[in-house]
Write a structure and sequence with these properties.
The complex is a heterodimer of chains A (about 600) and B (about 150).
Chain A (H helix, E strand, L loop, with lengths): L19 H10 L3 H51 L9 H5 L6 E2 L5 E13 L7 H11 L5 H8 L6 E7 L1 H10 L4 E10 L7 H4 L1 E7 L4 E7 H5 L1 H5 L8 E2 L4 H17 L4 E8 L5 E7 L30 E2 L5 H10 L8 E3 L4 E3 L2 E3 L8 E3 H7 L2 H11 L1 H10 L26 H8 L5 E2 L1 H12 L24 H17 L13 E10 L5 E14 L6 E8 L3 E3 L2 E3 L2 H19 L13 H6 L1
Parallel strand pairs in A: 1-7
Antiparallel strand pairs in A: 1-2, 2-3, 2-4, 5-6, 8-9, 8-18, 10-15, 11-14, 12-13, 16-17, 17-18, 19-20
Helix pairs in contact in A: 4-5, 4-6, 10-18, 11-13, 11-17, 12-17, 13-15
Chain B lengths: L1 H57 L2 H10 L1 H4 L36 H4 L36
The chains are: A alpha+beta (about 600), B mainly alpha (about 150).
């Protein structure tokens, strides 16, 4: 019994209850052999009991340990729960509260686009009591519904019919009052633009995607809404509005001034851009005619897309912008030390190249200084300067300024504003491009180009998102060239083609451009022009670039019909600057005595 | 001793069970309160969104301009122009009022006729305080509600 516990346990041989030897011995002695059997049986039972007891004890131990462990776990868990700070349980209803499309705000946090709870109306015709009456009542509540058509749809045998996408609370109440159990409402979130058409082309618009009874997806269809659709819908960004670079005050003023200019000059369309020359932020951008994004008109099925109000002239519209480009040719010539501002340039008329003849608006004599070529806007002078530069380098320079590809602005439509480049960029193309014909770009390209050239010479990319600091783009021209170009543009306003652009205190510098509009099948219209004024202010330390374009504007002043930009676009731009500069916080100031190479050289 | 211990343990189990039960019900109550609170928050957020939209809609520049034009006679608001920027030198100092002597009050110094715009004064005004305290009558006290009924 007390053998080595480690030894392999051989089954104990079963002891016989009546061992023959012991019984025989007992019989010899005359004893009762049954006693032996009893004794042996007793011993066997003892052994069995010991074994069972040992087994039961170990089982009890394991069971006890298990209970201690289980209750210990419960105790530890309860202790940790009791000592942990109380937290609000996450309930499923939390997801219903948020989870809507993020707002869009302007740079000061004013709401440009947000959501509104609304209801959609649907019908279960099999639950309806009196369909003709319901159809009659619906037609009375919603004037656009036709009673017969609604009735026909309800009687068509379908079990589920959408009737209307959005209802105002009053309309919901009126439908309730019809008292028809089969007319039901679905929860909806509607996108609203409280400012109406103010920034229509920038915001674009939204509509419903997948529609369900519980909710419907709101998806952006154009503009910023579409370009940032993923981000706006992302639940991670709910409650965090998308801040644009637009300023509502400036945008509203721009739209008002531009609309006034468009009416005054009887123009077909107009667009304008105000851009920060250092950060590339677009503070305001308008294109007229515009539309209300709350009620976005359908795309025109026929006619020219460019005449639709949906067309963003400032970004999508690529035009030959005319003489506003001259400053780029001149700046490049200055940068490459081909001439100085006071260098005389040959302006004899006409400049003949092959079968082409280039003429000026009027004859300015045999030669002009480089400054005066810009001031008087001489085509022949600029073309001759461009000849010095050559096609390759001109293309590279315009490429550096971003004129050869679509603007990277954050609008869905931006890639469609791809510049139209000449098929062959030869010498004659170089000459015409130097004064803005042969290369079609958007007004936004022009604003970005002016900003890059005049902010000190580093490239800026236009953006619609609020920025925290100035852009550190690659250098396009040197500081000196940038200064000289500013001074030339200032001279244009002081004594050149843009004298109406003078705004006391703001030292506007800019260049006019009057481009004949190309006919769809080659050649140019005689009397249809695009008048552009591209400018920066204050010219001695540019802060903002302003580009104004009027399409087919004309006016009658001093008994003559005027179509040139100096008469059309410049006054509008001047009024725009006069009105928006105070809103942008620019104080009028007396221009500092100009101390650049240009003036020093002239002295 | 054994029975006493047994009774004691029984009581403890009973009490803790009672406590745990109560705790359970309180938790459920809190969760249901929370749910209704969250529903209320949701509804209030919806209302807030509506109010924000309305605020933005009422403050749209177009309407503000129309309002400014409508109230031009009283407000005389015009769009901001560069001329509206002033310099600090353009602001006049406030007129110097004589300071009272030591021990003297302000009474004798403040003559309304000197301080007020003459156009605002009543016709035939000849100096002195504008309101005679003797004319001021205390408002009649509102009778108390009696027996839940207003007289």
């Amino acid at each position: 019994m007390f053998s080595d516990p480690n030894a392999p346990k051989a089954p104990e041989p079963r002891r016989p209850l009546r061992p023959l030897a012991a019984i025989l011995r007992a019989r010899e002695r005359g004893e009762n052999p049954d006693l032996i059997e009893k004794e042996n049986l007793h011993a066997r039972h003892e052994r069995m009991r010991d074994a069972a007891q040992g087994r039961a004890e170990s089982r009890l131990l394991v069971l006890g340990l298990f209970f201690v462990l289980a209750f210990g776990t419960v105790a530890v868990r309860m202790g940790s729960l009791a000592s942990a700070p109380p937290a609000e349980p996450r309930l499923a209803s939390g997801a219903v509260i948020s989870g809507s499309r993020a707002d869009i705000t302007d740079r000061e946090g004013r709401v440009l686009a947000t959501n509104l709870e609304t209801r959609a109306l649907y019908a279960h015709p099999h639950e309806m009591v009196d369909i003709p009456r319901a159809a009659r009542e619906l037609a009375r509540i919603f004037p656009e519904m036709d009673q017969e058509r609604v009735e026909k749809r309800l009687l068509s045998g379908r079990k589920f019919i959408w009737l209307r996408k959005t209802l105002s609370p009053e309309q919901v109440q009126m439908v309730h009052e019809v008292g028809e159990p089969g007319l039901l409402f679905a929860a909806r979130q509607m996108r609203v633009y409280p400012n109406g058409p103010l920034a229509a082309h920038i915001l674009g618009g939204a509509s419903f995607g997948d529609e369900g009874v519980r909710a419907a997806e709101v998806i952006g269809v154009a503009g910023v809404e579409r370009a940032f659709d993923g981000q706006l819908r992302d639940p991670k960004h709910t409650g965090k509005p998308l801040a644009l670079s637009i300023d509502v005050k400036v945008q509203a003023t721009m739209r008002e001034v531009l609309a006034g200019g468009m009416t005054m000059f009887d123009a077909k369309g107009a667009s304008a851009v105000i851009m920060d020359v250092h950060t590339g932020e677009i503070l305001a951008m308008s294109s007229l005619p515009d539309f209300d994004p709350n009620d976005r008109p359908p795309l025109p099925s026929s006619g020219d897309q460019a005449d639709s109000p949906l067309f963003n002239r400032a970004v999508q519209g690529v035009y030959e912008l005319g003489s506003v480009f001259k400053i780029f040719a001149m700046a490049q010539a200055l940068e490459e030390r081909l001439l100085l501002p006071q260098t005389m340039v040959n302006t004899t008329q006409p400049l003949t190249w092959g079968k082409f003849r280039i003429r000026d608006f009027k004859d300015y004599g045999p030669q002009l200084s480089a400054v005066d070529v810009i001031v008087k806007s001489s085509n022949t002078g600029t073309a001759r300067v461009a000849q010095l530069i050559g096609a390759q380098r001109q293309k590279a320079f315009l490429g550096d300024l971003g004129f050869l590809e679509a603007t990277p602005v954050e609008l869905f439509e931006a890639p469609s504003g791809r510049p139209l480049l000449p098929k062959k960029w030869g010498e004659i193309q170089t000459m015409t491009i130097s004064y803005g014909h042969g290369l079609s770009t958007s007004p936004l390209h022009l604003a970005a180009g002016y900003a890059s050239l005049l902010n000190g010479g580093t490239k800026v990319t236009p953006t619609l998102l609020k920025q925290s600091g100035r852009q550190l783009g690659p250098r396009v021209v040197s500081q000196e060239t940038s200064h000289a170009a500013r001074d030339m543009l200032r001279q244009v306003v002081v004594r050149g083609t843009a004298t109406f652009g003078e705004v006391p205190g703001y030292g506007v510098g800019g260049k006019t451009g009057t481009a004949d509009k190309p006919k769809p099948n080659g050649g140019y219209y005689k009397k249809k022009v695009l008048a552009t004024f591209a400018s920066v202010y204050p010219a001695h330390d540019p802060k903002y670039a302003v580009v104004v374009t009027l399409d087919e504007g004309k006016t009658k002043i001093l008994g003559k019909e005027r179509r040139t930009a100096g008469w059309i676009a410049v006054p509008v731009a001047a009024e725009l600057i006069r009105r928006t500069a105070p809103l942008l916080g620019v104080r009028p100031e007396i221009e500092p005595e100009v101390a650049t190479e240009l003036v020093q050289a002239r002295r | 001793m054994k029975t006493f211990l047994g009774l004691l343990i029984g009581c403890v189990v009973l009490l803790t069970g009672f406590w745990a039960y109560q705790e359970n019900y309180r938790t459920r109550q809190t969760i249901s309160d929370l749910r209704s609170l969250q529903r209320e928050i949701g509804a209030l957020r919806g209302e807030l969104a509506v109010l924000e939209v309305e605020w933005a809609y009422l403050n749209r520049p177009e309407r503000l301009r129309a309002l400014a034009d409508l109230n031009f006679e009283t407000l005389q608001l015009i769009p901001m122009r560069p001329e509206h920027f002033g310099v600090i030198d353009q602001i006049a100092f406030a007129p110097q009022l004589p300071m009272p002597e030591e021990g003297e009050g302000f009474e004798g110094l403040l003559d309304p006729a000197e301080l007020l715009d003459p156009q605002l004064l009543p016709a035939g005004y000849e100096g002195g305080p504008l309101i005679d305290m003797a004319d001021v009558v205390a408002p009649e006290p509102v009778p108390d509600a009696q027996d839940g009924q207003f007289p």
